[in-house]
Amino acid sequence: MAEQRYDRADDDVGNLVEIGHVNVNVTDQLAATEFYVTGLGLTRDPYLMTATSNMWINVGRHQFHLPTAKRGQRLHGVTGLVFPDLDALRARLAKAKIPVTEVAGGLEIVSPWGNRIRAHAPAPHFGPVTLALAYVEHDVPAGAAEPIAAFYREIIGAPATVKDSAAHVRAGRQELIFRESDAPVEPYEGHHIQIYLADFSTPHRKLVERNLISMENNTHEYRFMNITGLDDGHVYCRLEHEVRSLRHPLFGRTLVNRDPSMDPQTYAAGREAFAWATAGA
Fold it and tell me: Among 111, 123, 130, 263, which is most buried by a count of CB atoms within 10 Å?
């Protein structure tokens, strides 16, 4: 028998395969472009949602979806992104006159609508990527972490643990984090996240049994909003999940990512695209 040299559990991802996108409304696409494209150096999807009614922003293999509305939305927490070069990010933000705060482990930037972005340098625990949506962290009431972790384990089939008063839900190489706070919970504003599930039907059946399905979109997609206790049915967090199967036509779609360091003075033919994955991805 061959000697076991690896911890095989490290590669167990569970049923929640990936966080595909974070969706928050914006009121002004020009301001959104200045923040997400000029400041952060991300890329607007050139193929889909090119009208002024919505903007899809590529982050490696993940996205922000930014529909235009009369009122912007704010995710009550923070979205963690991996960037290849924090010094270059600082320079872009300074040039765009976007304030940045130094925080433990990286930088924090706030959008015009109050959405907090935490920028991290590439690191092994984020996987072999240099540009990615690494985690979505949501503020929840004190005492909510344990029942939320149980919900994801039992209903969604995702590995979930509680550490330092926060539920950590594994989503492939990403994480959903629900961090307890003593501050009053702010009213839910209708933002959502999108996830991909390998076993699409079992969570659906369990959500139907608890009357938690909020929308039946199509054969490849449904939604739920309330994260509840398994025994008491209490709503511990409201966060709409756009749930897609792995047969969804957008799963695994190749996204265009530009090299934001490229300008007319530094242009090199064939070097416009940015490779977000490192060896071993």
Answer: 111
